[in-house]
């Protein structure tokens, strides 16, 4: 009996080793499970951070499932009641009765011609209006002041109409003709250039252009909406910078034909009549026009001043400048034409002589207005615009494209040019403000003229 008991007794050391081994195995397993648990919890935390809407969506899902069960129960109840009501209706019978007897119509029910014509007319007007608005919206042409302010993002300081020649009284027109004859004879300032006058004699086209574009009446008292527009432009520029008035202004545009030369000339005339001593410079070497409009010789001029070998030589400079700068028939208005043809105008504009010349003119004149070439045609225009007090950007209504104007504005901004604003030329006031605006405007001026005569 004792020997049997001893044979079944477990060895404590072996048991301890076995338990220790199990403990180690379980500990390792526990550590692995804890690591997995931590990893899963971390992934769960990151997932909840990346998808914070999961909790709200789970709540919304529970709510929708509950609502779905309610709707299913309601549907089952209503379907049961519907079947009951249907069964009861079948049991009662149809219950139909004749309300009114059918009759033969005397006129066709369809088509209703009058209604169709009225609807077609209204629809046609609506579609036409929508098409015109859509075409105007997608058009790349600048037409109104709002187009300039919305797309070009520049202020409009002046609007010049496009209604034909100025309405100047007959007496003023006669004086204009005599003035033109006087200007043909020349002045003491350009006697030395008399030999060039033969090639610059006024033609009918130039005189027609003059009568259609310039406020050239010597008395300056002609009152029309067009002339008033240029006076308003001059006042807008004047009051735009009262603390530091503009001494030099460059008038430019994107491409030819936008009436920048007309704008520059009339602006110079208006400021001269306001009492300022004004110098009008023609810096468009490729297409000079101002000397023709004012019936002056082209040479000597700006290019001759810029090509003087030594501008510090007082005698040479004074001699050429006196021959280049000449008075016009407008009091206080002086003209500096483009001058002789030069092979490389870009080099002249990019030199320091131009800036020094403009600064010298600013000391002798109250205002220097420069008519430059179009920005997108002549690259050297930027040199003129950069050194001036302000740039006046001319845009022609119904002709200037938005992309061209934006490109010109970008070029001016790249050289840090000071843009005063834009002048919108060729404006149709009937489009801008309606037919009655122009009618009342003309009536006002004619009525005022009659009162002055009385």
What this model shows, in words?
This protein is of the alpha/beta class. It has a domain at 145-453: 3-Layer(aba) Sandwich (Rossmann fold), CATH 3.40.50. The chain contains 18 helices and 8 strands. It has an 8-stranded mixed sheet, sandwiched between helices. The model is unreliable at 163-203 (pLDDT under 50).
> What is the correct CATH architecture of the domain at 145-453?
3-Layer(aba) Sandwich
- Largest beta-sheet characterization: 8 strands, mixed
> H/E series, N to C?
HHHHHEHHHEHEHHHEEHHEHEHEHH
Determine the number of helices (DSSP H or I, runs of at least 4 residues): 18
Multimerization status: single chain
| CATH fold group of the domain at 145-453 | Rossmann fold
CATH class of the domain at 145-453: Alpha Beta
Spatial order of the strands forming the largest sheet: 1-8-7-2-6-3-5-4
Question: Separation of termini?
Answer: 159 Å
- Mean pLDDT equals 76
Strand content: 5-15%
Describe the structure in brief.
The chain has helices spanning 2-8, 12-50, 53-92, 113-138, 145-152, 170-185, 204-213, 225-240, 260-273, 290-293, 302-306, 314-324, 345-349, 352-364, 381-386, 402-414, 429-432, 435-453; strands spanning 156-161, 248-253, 278-283, 326-327, 333-336, 367-372, 390-396, 419-427.
Task: Name the descriptors.
Rossmann fold, 454 residues, 56% helix, eight-stranded mixed beta sheet, alpha/beta, flat, 8 strands
Topology, pairings included?
Elements: H1 2-8, H2 12-50, H3 53-92, H4 113-138, H5 145-152, E1 156-161, H6 170-185, H7 204-213, H8 225-240, E2 248-253, H9 260-273, E3 278-283, H10 290-293, H11 302-306, H12 314-324, E4 326-327, E5 333-336, H13 345-349, H14 352-364, E6 367-372, H15 381-386, E7 390-396, H16 402-414, E8 419-427, H17 429-432, H18 435-453
Parallel strand pairs: 1-8, 2-6, 2-7, 3-5, 3-6, 7-8
Antiparallel strand pairs: 4-5
Helix pairs in contact: 8-9
